Backbone:
């Protein structure tokens, strides 16, 4: 029984890795579409989000069936419950990548971020991609150094998020209301994306070290 | 054993009701603070959010211990899993109420929404409060008519959310960049708050009717 359970846990882990790789693709394409005003790529991200949703839903069913059939307790149970939460967060990261792609599509053929903010969003987008890649490797390898790196990248993203507001609220901001609305939402999406990655990374770390936090997805 | 389990499920339900009532208080005070620029009330919402977080965390622990000790299967297992998800969504609703309160605090003694948008935000805030109250009653009574009412209120909130963007992007918008950023974020928070309520209401409905959706919190 124990061996079957271990094999099922590996299956859960593999599926989380699979979903996380689709999230990497989504955020890579979404930020490229956003930075380069590539409407075809934006449409692709939007169309492919349902794949992430379906895989996350399947994974939830698998986790529930493992709980019902294997009746795990203690640490094993927490692993399965945490898989449900990671699945929900990955699915939400896919949604956010879709929101970023939607902004690119709305403004096409214009770029969402202009002139003074191009550099900031380019860096934020690249950091979100790195965070997603590190998260995928973290889930696959459980190399916990990656969890700390994700947290560091998130700190930098938070700084950039603040700098967007400072730019928009400064005397020299020459953007229209459309620009202001767009960059406000875009910055929030970029920041929330990384927050979810930090939340998942914490769960992987707590599970690996045996230290558990009961708190939900923040 | 079955009787013990039923009693534990009632305990889970009672705790969900307790948390949902705190969410009602949080959104009531947050929207009042927001509409009336009441900084003391805003501070109170911000300070009290940790209570919601702690109760949600305790509820998660209870749900996990029920799974470990009672080993529920089939529908019973889904009820407990859904409680974990409802707890995460309620906790997130508390966070969003806190974000609305933070906006009020940042702009004090000014109001966040001005002039032409005062009425829209007043209606959105009142709808969020109604949605939270209906959700709390829904969890308590399982009166499924409330789930449909919540969905209807959410539709109206979505309309108001769109109208905020229309106002901000219109030729006649005279707000500063600060106003534009604030109302963009505020409108998004009001809209997401109700989205989470709809997500929870769906779970209650599916559980009550026996029809289950595997999808995570959207």
Residues:
């Amino acid at each position: 029984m124990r061996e079957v359970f271990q094999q099922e846990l590996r299956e859960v882990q593999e599926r989380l890795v699979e979903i996380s790789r689709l999230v990497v693709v989504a955020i890579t394409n979404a930020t490229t579409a956003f930075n380069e005003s590539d409407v075809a790529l934006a449409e692709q991200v939007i169309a492919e989000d349902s794949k992430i949703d379906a895989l996350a839903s399947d994974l939830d069913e698998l986790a529930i069936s493992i709980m019902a059939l294997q009746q795990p307790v203690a640490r094993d149970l927490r692993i399965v419950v945490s898989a449900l939460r990671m699945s929900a967060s990955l699915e939400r990261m896919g949604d956010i990548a879709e929101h970023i792609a939607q902004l690119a599509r709305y403004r096409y053929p214009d770029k969402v971020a202009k002139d003074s903010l191009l550099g900031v969003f380019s860096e934020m987008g690249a950091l979100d991609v790195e965070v997603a890649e590190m998260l995928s490797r973290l889930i696959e390898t459980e190399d916990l150094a990656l969890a700390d790196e994700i947290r560091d990248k998130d700190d930098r993203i938070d700084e950039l998020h603040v700098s967007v507001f400072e730019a928009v609220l400064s005397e020299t901001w020459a953007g229209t209301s459309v620009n202001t609305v767009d960059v406000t939402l875009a910055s929030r999406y970029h920041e929330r994306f990384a927050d979810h990655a930090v939340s998942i990374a914490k769960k992987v770390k707590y599970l690996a070290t045996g230290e558990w936090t009961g708190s939900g997805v923040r």
Q: What stands out?
A: The interface with chain B takes residues 53, 56-58, 60-61, 64, 67-68, 71, 73-74, 77-78, 81, 84-85, 87-88, 91-92, 95, 165, 168-169, 173, 175, 177-178, 180-181, 184-185, 188, 214-218 of chain A (CB under 8 Å). The longest helix of chain A spans residues 2-36. The two ends of chain A are 35 Å apart (CA to CA). Confidence is low (pLDDT under 50) at residues 212-218 of chain A.
